[in-house]
Write a structure and sequence with these properties.
With 308 residues, the protein is an alpha+beta fold. The chain is built from 8 helices and 12 strands. A 12-stranded mixed sheet has the order 1-2-3-4-5-12-6-11-10-9-8-7, sandwiched between helices. A hairpin with a 4-residue loop joins strand 9 and strand 10. The radius of gyration is 21 Å and the shape is globular.
């Protein structure tokens, strides 16, 4: 070693069950820097909500620092009794290319007992390379689809007989909505497991607007059988089919399509030029419905997992 050799990098990795306010702000700053570089968020909305508000059951935060500066972050959620723990990770753009992503991935594998699922939002080549290096295989493909809301006439929604639609009432409809959401997404480990705390987190967000949260109920007994929760991304001027669900037993009668159109017409009335949604690529029926409504694939998120 000579005096011209670069100083060795001091890397440390700590795991927290909850983050302090300063740590949460530092992670959000890292995520913002990465989003500016990558063109999208590396951590999902649910993951970002879980940065604040104290400890969450089954959620761990991994903080990777280089010479005392936060350089990488990973979140591990082990709350599903059946599915393997799910993770998301990101390295600050200024610290990429030094093996920090692999270090975070190795720590996630160790923490999960080598039973792990990892999201790669956008499916970038670097993320695919990291997944392969960690011995993970492609498991799930989540498509983001978009369609314009201007210049195209949206059909009039046709509700099944005996069904009416109204807006969500915060506090009054929480329990009923959580119940139908759990039934409609029983096959979906993330969406189907939402709790009152998760709902409260979203209701507290600046984008929440009950006017765009539509509930379908039977006129005979008022039972909730479906919903379409829309979301507006004001900065991007983009509407979203945030969550759309129909209770089992009420499917197949055109309610899902009608709710989709009701939400899209609401977003168009808000003056938004386009709308987006997420759908699993293997959900052929849903993809077909959305394609017939004018949606096309915009980008793809990939999930990798260890071999089971």
């Amino acid at each position: 070693m000579t005096s011209d050799d670069p100083a060795p990098i001091t890397r440390s990795l700590e795991t927290r069950s909850e983050l302090s306010p300063d740590e949460a702000e530092a992670v959000l700053g890292l995520l913002a820097a990465a989003a500016r570089e990558d063109g999208q968020q590396a951590v999902s909305e649910q993951g970002r909500l879980q940065l604040r508000g104290g400890a969450r059951p089954g959620v761990s935060h991994l903080l990777l620092s280089v010479d005392g500066e936060l350089a990488g972050y990973a979140q591990l959620e082990d709350a599903d009794p059946v599915e393997a723990p799910a993770a998301e990770l990101v390295v600050h753009p200024a610290h990429r290319g030094h093996g920090h992503g692999r270090a975070l991935g190795a720590a996630l594998l160790a923490a999960s007992g080598r039973r792990l699922r990892v999201w790669a939002h956008g499916g970038h080549s670097a993320a695919r390379h990291l997944a392969q290096g960690l011995g993970l295989t492609l498991f799930r493909e989540l498509r983001q689809m978009r369609r314009p809301l201007t210049g195209f006439e949206l059909p009039e929604p046709v509700l099944p007989e005996g069904v009416r639609v109204r807006a969500f009432v915060p506090g009054q409809d929480d329990a009923a909505w959580l119940a139908v959401n759990a039934e409609a997404f029983a096959h979906h480990p993330e969406q189907g497991s939402l709790t009152q705390r998760d709902l409260d987190d979203r209701k507290a967000e600046p984008w929440f607007d009950p006017r765009g949260f539509f509930l379908a109920e039977r006129q005979s007994d008022g039972r909730l059988i479906g919903f379409h929760w829309t979301k507006v991304h004001r900065e991007e001027r983009l509407g979203e089919v945030y969550v759309l669900g129909v209770r089992p037993g009420a499917q197949g009668g055109g309610l899902g399509k009608a709710l989709t159109l009701i939400g899209l017409r609401h977003l168009a009335a808000e003056g938004l030029p386009a709308a987006m949604l997420y759908v699993d690529a293997d959900n052929k029926a849903a993809v077909s419905v959305y394609e017939r409504l004018g949606f096309t694939t915009y980008e793809t998120d990939l999930m990798y997992r260890t071999e089971t």
